[in-house]
Amino acid sequence: MKKVLWVFLAVAIAVAGTIGYGALVRQENDTGRPLRLLAVAEEQRLELSFSRSGRILTPVPDEGETVTAGAEVTRIGQPGLEEDGADLARQVDQVRARERTRREEVARLQAERAQIQSEERRITKLVKDGIAPKAELETLEHRRHAVEAGIRGREAEKGELEAEEKALEARREKLKTFGREGILLAPATGVVLTRHHREGEWLEAGQPVLTLQVEAPYLRAEVPEERLSLFTVGRSVWVFPQTRPNDRTKARVVSIKPRSEYATRRNWGLQNRDLKTFSVRLALDGNQAISGQTFVVEAGPPVVR
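Below the sequence we write its predicted structure tokens.
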């Protein structure tokens, strides 16, 4: 009899535990009413800066102006850059002039060698006939050897001049790169939000020249975990400015990302610390939001108006 009672007691405890644990299981808090949340329009900004220091030479676009992708925003002047470029160009011209002189000298020496060789053939025939002395032939050979040595020396100068020209050209290319780095191009189309510097000011490398709003502001809403199923990527929800509830429009869910902090609501008793909030990004149809503007987001069953 006691064994039976103990069995019934164990079964009762197990059933009670199952019921108690089941009461703690999370369920989505969907009461059939639409969910209303506040969302803030956040701007998508891009700061433009130079990788080198210099003085701003051209006007910088003012706040509110539109800058198109690939357009020149402004440019800076670097001290001594133009003078170094002109000096290198002069040195390259000098090297090329020396190369032209070397070629002319080689051509002259080759012509002289050809003339000596022709004279050698004539004197060799005369020496064989016993008409001319052999010493005259040796003199011509000495002259030919000297001319050939001069040709070899001039040919050796060719490699030195080519190496010198390549070194100068490499320095010129580096200066051209510095010049291109002194021109700031817009990587994307946008509207100037902030102009940090003006024409004539000195700018350090990495300092922002201006800040662009590259795209229309998007909405950022914090959604509780128990209502997250109302927001799926690609789905549209109703939104309206908090100050103009009659201006309702659609917004598309672009992304959903979990936040690190936990919700502090007490809906779930012992499990309230298990609930997170999720950051939902919304894109407005028509892009009529202003950065910093507050919107109301409605999701769930349609609202009867």
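The CA atoms of residues 5 and 141 lie 133 Å apart.
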